[in-house]
Amino acid sequence: MAQIVGGGSPVNDAERRVIAHLRDNAPADWLLLHNIEVPRGDDGFEVDVLVLTGHSLCIIDVKGTRGRIEVAGTRWFPERRETFGSPVTKLRGNGRALKGLLMQRRRELERVYVDSLVVLTGQDAELVDPAGRDSRHVTDLAGLIGALSDVSRVRRGYTTDTTPYGTAIIEALNGSVRRSTAPPRFGNWQVEEQLGGDTRVTEYRAINATVPDSETVLLRVYRADPLAQEGPRAAERRLITNAYQALTRIPPHPCVVRARDFFAIDDESRFVLVLDDVHGQALHLHLTAPRQTLSTEARLDVVEDMLLGLAHVHANNVIHRALNPACVLVTENGRAMLTGFDYAKPGTRTHTVAGELPNVLDTHYAAPEFLTMSAVMTEASDVYAAGVIAFQLLTGRLPSAGADADPTAGGAPAEVMDVLRRMRDPAPHRRPTAAQALTDLRGARRPQPPSPRPPAPHPVGLTPVESHPPVPHPATGVPPEPAWEGTPRADGDAPGREPLFDKIRMRFRRLSGR
């Protein structure tokens, strides 16, 4: 049984399970601290669990995320939830910060290896990491003791025996960390779970502290340097506030994620953007996970919603500029919503954040004009990205170079693929607007029924004699041919019909005996 040497109150059941598991199953010489705050400059960070084993000091982040989680780049894509930044990336950064803090206190701790692990507590949690970027630093509850016991995780150059350093480590921690007395709280929003993030932003799931039973929201907490000089600080503030400025220009719409609030913390060292917690998952999962496959009609519905949201965004003078499958959420009822407006352009203004785009934009979805000058990206650039996303969703692959390539796709009408081809035209002025593309897509999906055939034309100069609809013959059920009167065609009478003039002549012969 491991020894718990201090800590605060666990934030959720997932953290309680990990702490109890380590306490009850870890070796007796392991030491545990949990729910502590580690200072870092004028700020700090939360640590769920800190474990001192016989060969390393390991910082642990607990995640209650359930189901399949796909890793792509620096983002995690969970089922039925919005994407978030890799917690592994953030945790390793926190580990380096902790190591620096220990060395400031006791120089000999330079030889101690600080490891990092993300623990998934959901019973059905499954991490899919094709590139192997994060999987080495992720385990489940059953594998936690084994991962912590693995001496091979210690990198070359560090000691594999922490016994001589145990007292120094505890003293350094006691002089540095402080007990976390309550879950993090930002304004009136109390954190339920830290999702992930990077050095710039941390993402949380939170509830309203006044109404604990209320629905959850997503918090994006941006870190800022309040001591920076005015020029760099103003530039940092413009970048942080960009998403909120863009979203406030867009009236509520079912295909655009809504921003609820935005505010600064204390001395503007942090800014908080409050967003709806959409019960859905990133479109990226439907492009890569076989079991997430949508029917052709459902995929076309997603494309239609994407264009519907984009048309609404453009109608309110906002350009997204960074549209990709991670910015399109597919909800549980099959609707699609746009998100990810951090680098959007909200109308005309005196400054720009376009200079950040080369660092964040996925070039697979970037319009050709971006490759020459990112500042000239327009609404047409968004349409191009939407065309690439739609093509990939319908075909399972990215389009080939050139607007005329890949004209068809299995299961999708050729007319639909033609709309997507025009959306990806290399020349921005030849692409349809989002609203035009939406109209064209709807027309291609639901072509107009053929017009009813007009009645057969009457012979020129003839009109039917009957003033009432003909009655079908009782034996055959076929109505009699109508009688005709008037002047027949010059090239003969209507076939099978007796002109009125001949009828009068025959009646005259019968009466006169001629």
From TrEMBL:
Native organism: Streptosporangium becharense
Keyword field: Kinase, Serine/threonine-protein kinase, Transferase
Pro residues: bias regions: 447-458, 467-482
Basic and acidic residues composition-biased segments: 488-505
Name of the protein described by the UniProt record: Serine/threonine protein kinase
The Protein kinase domain, residue ranges: 189-471
Coiled coil: none
Domain of life: Bacteria
One family name in Pfam for this protein: NERD
Region named Disordered: 438-514
Keyword Kinase included in the entry's annotation: yes
